Amino acid sequence: MKNTNKILSGILAASIMFGTTSCGDDFLKENANHTTTDALLETGAGALAMAAGLYGNLRWHFGYEWAYAITLYGCDEFSMGSDETSLGWMDYNTAEMNPAGSSRRNHPSPADLWNELYFGIATCNLLLQKAPLIASEQDRNSALGEAYFLRGYNYYRLFCQYERCPLQLEPIDVSAGVPRNFKLSSGEDVLNQVIDDLQKAYDLLRTDDWRGAGTWTKYTAAHFLAKALLYRQSERCTWKSNYPAKTDLDRAIRLCDEVIDARGLEKDYNNLYSNWTGVDCNIEKSKEILMSALHNDASTTVGRYGNRTYNYFSSQYNTYSGGYVPRGQYIGDMEFQRCRPTEYTYAVFDNVNDSRMWKTFKTVYGICNNVATPDYVKAENTPTFGDQGVLFLLNKKDDTRFRKDEFGRAAIKHTFVNPETGKWVPNVAPVYAEGQYVMNTYGTSAANRSNMFCGINKTADGSRTGEKGDAHRDVTMARVGETYLVKAECQVRNGDDAGALATINLLRERAEWKAGEDREYYVDGTIAFKSNSTASGNCAKGNKDANGAKLTNQQAFEYSFIQKNSYVLSTGVERPVESESWNASSLQISSWNNLPAEDQAVLNGMGLSVNTLEGKVNFILNERTRELLGEWNRWDELSRTKTLYKRAKLFNPETLYIQEHHNLRPIPQSFLDGLTNDNGEPLTDQEKKDMQNPGY
């Protein structure tokens, strides 16, 4: 590849990503063997292939530790287990965030996002220059729309994280040397550019999935354009009075309605994540999904960044379980214990009536290795293969049924016998016991580094052929469920409280248990192991049966994957008798003055009234947790509403050093160090300081 446009030395890194070298879905496979040169870009076909390559820029977001560090750490929803790989992003220790100051080898840098987003922007700029070569008007408009969309999205992310950044809107000619005198545009100008790009994308993109599942459409652009318009009327934009609020919010609401009417919601929340049965399965084609980072199992398209997200949300069962549940590809997750839910996250769900809780959290792992049961366990209570090896109870604070000392992990004596099975459970923990939050007290470390917790299942992947291999499933980045919440917040800010509540109730209706639905049924992407090519091989961890014979992966899968959750034991709700079935539940909210107890507790803790805009916005943030937990945008949303500091301090004790200025990330030092002034001289320390975001 020759004469590609680059800005060197970590300033605005640029790289052309062509054809299928980075993307993974079917519509990107067919050109995997292309050799791309500048000559190809002089043809319409080449420019169209280049547009397909834009999708690969999204893969970076989910390749390594920055996936969760940039988006989920340091907020209200997740703390961490005993692994401190991305500690600086959690506790806001600025010295740790600087790679040069961190002793943690894989600690993400504040420059990672900055550099990668500019890779995509540079490619978009070149495509916008070359797209007129596409003869077909429809294909030309589609390619232009894709370029405007990705550039708008990437600048949106830069704005969310850093606010100020250089606006580079043309390809850079480096024949005269590498430019180094970039200026930071104001946050207002950056966001306005986002809105302009997304508007152009909306005008140009088609409404159909013309490339196949995963295509960016008019509705993808509409969703993000609505988010950008809402952002311009949110708390962090101190210049928002320059733009009529009603104009922005009315426009955003119309865009949301267009998306909702055209794409709609899945009927069952399980069809968003849990019913993932393998590569390119039906749920990846859901109309609710507006944008994904595309992946598959083709070695020709894996590129540099695979999907590593299955590592981040599970507790460290392989370590604390006492050998009862070794890890392997037969379990859909890896126990890297990066994201441990906070007490707020468990407590904000209605654990009886909200199916999202039970379709999001994985409460049971089955025993898949022979371990001698402790002597204090009675023979009739001794568990065996396929019984519960790890069990979590998602109960409420006022639950008086349990004592703290009857729970624990395998290495610590505890007496819990599941009354439903009559079997001792080697590893078991509730959220609450004796009126106290105790989920974080049964791990191998202090409470702030507990490695035993109930994690979420949205990234589980049983198609992996090695326990540490890349996942093969797409990563959802935007969907219609969020569109409802964007619309509701716009309505609240527009003074339409009744309309906002009606919008939220429509979303909550999907989360209600349906009549006859089995509330104890559980499934997640582990189910994809049913067709795994490594099923007949022996477990890598040497799992053995009672006679010492090695278990195959297939046997371990059958024992470990229990498709029954802990709903009844967690809630105390009686199971229907055999002649009856479960009733439907209701999550409908009758008025703003009659919010669910979970939400009222949060608002009370924050000292807020629901009769204020701040109170209503924080209620919507609670609903975002229930609907979108772990979906890669929490930090951006809390920063946007300037609730980051308050919610993190109240609900996440690990955000030790957070201050108000942390609503923005630091401008990457590597960028500042590479800059020159207009005379070509390096910036002075004071000039760099003047360019840096406040507080850094």
TrEMBL record:
Residues 671-696 are annotated as: Disordered. InterPro entries: SusD-like_N, SusD_RagB_dom, TPR-like_helical_dom_sf. Residues 685-696 have a biased composition (Basic and acidic residues). Residues 109-227 form the SusD-like N-terminal domain. The keyword Signal applies. GO terms for cellular component: cell outer membrane. It is found in: Cell outer membrane. PROSITE patterns: PROKAR_LIPOPROTEIN. Keywords: Cell outer membrane, Membrane, Signal. Residues 302-524 form the RagB/SusD domain. Belongs to the SusD family. This is RagB/SusD family nutrient uptake outer membrane protein. The lineage of its organism: Bacteria, Pseudomonadati, Bacteroidota, Bacteroidia, Bacteroidales.
